[in-house]
Amino acid sequence: MEYPFDRNFSFPRRTFINRLATLYDNWRVTVRERRQVEKVTIIPAKNVHALSVTDLPAVFVAHNEVALIPAFLSHYRRLGVTRFICLDDVSIDGTREYLMEQEDVDVWTSPIRFEAARRGRRWREALFERYGYNRWYLNLDADEFLVYDQCLREPLKVLINVLEEHDIKRLPAPMIDFYPSNAAKSGNGNMPWHVVDHIDGSGYDVTLQKRGISVKGGPRKRLFSEDNELIKYPLVYWDKNCRFGSSIHRPLPYNRNFSPVWGVLLHFKFFTNYREKIAEAAYNKQHYNGSQHYQAIKNEIDKIGTIDFVGYASIRFLNPEQLVDLGFMPTIEFDSDDERLEPARNWGTKRLI
């Protein structure tokens, strides 16, 4: 199926055989994961506190993200996050020092690196266990900014109410890569989309697989022929049945991965410092298959010195409503009596012509 969706699109119903295959794979992988329990050590870098029942926590992993961290915290505070729980992976650019100064941020460290922690998955599981099961968490990276229909007005807790009303325990959201261009910027402000403001508006595919939704495509495929998985589940209800298994893109239990309610992760892998970040990732080999993806991009940069990201599919990002209009995410029916956010000031108001 092509993605973004047509406005009238609805997911095809999964057959009984499809659902049975999902349950069987879920049973098989869960048994394997329970046999291969790998406890990792996480160490608090400052005093941490238990969550209250009203807290909405965000768990994230960071490594040298000081260029994005202030905007990251600001974005999620506005959406209603009350506690940030960060595993800092040996940052040396001031990220850890900045986070240590934030009253609503708990900072953790570990004696092992990202790759040894199964590319951060074991850290996340350890943090969920430490802070408690049977609650909603945001599960993020520091370069990911979640948006959803009406997020300029409706806080995350109201979105969670909608999910619970429909017995949905996860919000799928594809990572839509942002990249720079030579065009005039979309507006004034201190958020990353004011500086790096182009995305691919087409050229994606979505499939329903045994373990969940799959979305692939975008500028990494268009430019580098990379077939990266873009779907993630940044808002999850985490209980003792949950594990990440072999991929953060396919958390267990698999039958929870087929929600028709979507968001989008504004993804800033290609922010203004992308050359340095990609070179570091290729050198450190902390990502999948020895950072093969990053090495491919670095090779391209080494050949020509820079990357011209703009192509036939490029459009300028304006605001979350634009992503609804284009079919990247569906509309959501909110209760009109729900609490509303203050009007947002960090988004443009123009529409595509």
Protein architecture, described:
There is one protein chain. This protein is α/β, with parallel strands linked by helices. The protein has two domains: 2-269 and 312-326, Spore Coat Polysaccharide Biosynthesis Protein SpsA, Chain A, CATH 3.90.550; 271-308, no CATH class. It has helices spanning 16-35, 69-79, 95-100, 121-131, 156-165, 219-224, 274-284, 288-304, 320-326, and strands at 2-3, 43-44, 57-62, 83-88, 105-109, 135-141, 144-147, 170-177, 198-200, 204-209, 212-217, 231-238, 264-267, 314-316. The chain has a nine-stranded mixed β-sheet. The protein has a three-stranded antiparallel β-sheet with strand order 1-10-11. It has a two-stranded antiparallel ribbon with strand order 9-14. The longest helix is centred in the N-terminal third of the chain and has 20 residues, at 16-35. Residues 348-353 have low confidence and may be disordered.
Q: Give a count of the beta strands, DSSP E runs of length 2 or more.
A: 14
CATH topology (fold) name of the largest domain? Spore Coat Polysaccharide Biosynthesis Protein SpsA, Chain A
Assign an overall shape: globular
Count of discrete structural domains: 2
**Name given to the CATH architecture of the largest domain:** Alpha-Beta Complex
The N- to C-terminal Cα distance equals: 26 Å
Radius of gyration: 20 Å
Sequence stretches where pLDDT stays below 50 over 5 or more residues: 348-353
Mean pLDDT: 88
Q: Largest beta sheet: what is the strand line-up?
A: 2-5-4-3-6-12-8-13-7
Q: Residue share in helices? A: 25-40%
How many individual helices? 9
Can you summarize the main beta sheet? 9 strands, mixed
Order of helices and strands: EHEEHEHEHEEHEEEEHEEHHEH
Beta-strand content estimate? 15-25%
Structural category: alpha/beta
Q: So what's the CATH class of the largest domain? A: Alpha Beta
